[in-house]
Amino acid sequence: MISNAEFTAAAEELGFGRVYFLPVDDIPTPYVKLVSSPKALLPGAKTLILLIMPYELTDDGGCREGVISPYYKVSQKAYKGVKFLEKKLIDSGAQAVCNANIPLKAAIVKYDIGVQRLNSLTYINGIGSAFHIQNIITDIAFEYSRIDRSLSVTDCSKCLHCLRACPSGAISTTGFVDPNRCLRFVSELKQIPAEFENNLGNKLLGCDECQKACPHNMVAKTNAQFAYPLEKLLKGDLGELPELIGTNLARKTRMICKACVLAANNNRTDLLPLIRELEKSSDTYISAAARRAMERLEVIT
After folding, report:
1. Do the beta carbons of residue 263 and residue 291 sit within 8 Å?
2. Domain total for the chain?
3. 149 falls within a domain
């Protein structure tokens, strides 16, 4: 049977920065859509494996194309990686279930791997909040990881940097994050509510502003952001996006509608001819988004 060291080495080759082997205890959660007991998903399970893939927060100021949070590329990479590791375990004779619908934030806190902070994100010592979590439940009795419980992230209740940085006012002083105002959630919608259009700026997917403002995170002052040309999106050319961020998010209608919003946000009057053509589309979402972008852009021409 595969050892801790062999599994960890395989995970690190795939880009996972940390691997935790944990007991399969129940994980309390207020969310009814999540399964609180890993054993309910795999009877006989002995180990819960949490796999952490960090990513670099980048400064995307000044870019006039469609910026995508690095979270989305990393989450797709991690998803493919955990599927590979699940197969590796099964091929070794084990039972395994990956990407289980369990409360991962609560698991991070329960096992003292990290803490949940004011912006609702979980923070891991030495990494911060810029990471994607994957999981595997297996009947292999791995040796459990030793967690250094002497480490803790300091209280953030008096900082409020994330609250002030949030473009849409989604974070309250009590630590409640309104998902209907969070731009990560809003940016994944097919149709963007008018009140959030300007808040999106150049953000095609994701936000990261609360994370970039947090003193416990590092932000790379580079131009290494992942951006996709708005012109290509308006033409319906998704190129490599489905492979990089997943087909569920890289849907043509969603991307075209978002490109219309971002074109208007960034005063891309050079794209008006394409947007005028899209206004004639038989797709009601696309025609509505194009019409709205035309109204906003034609004011400044």
Report:
1. no
2. 2
3. no
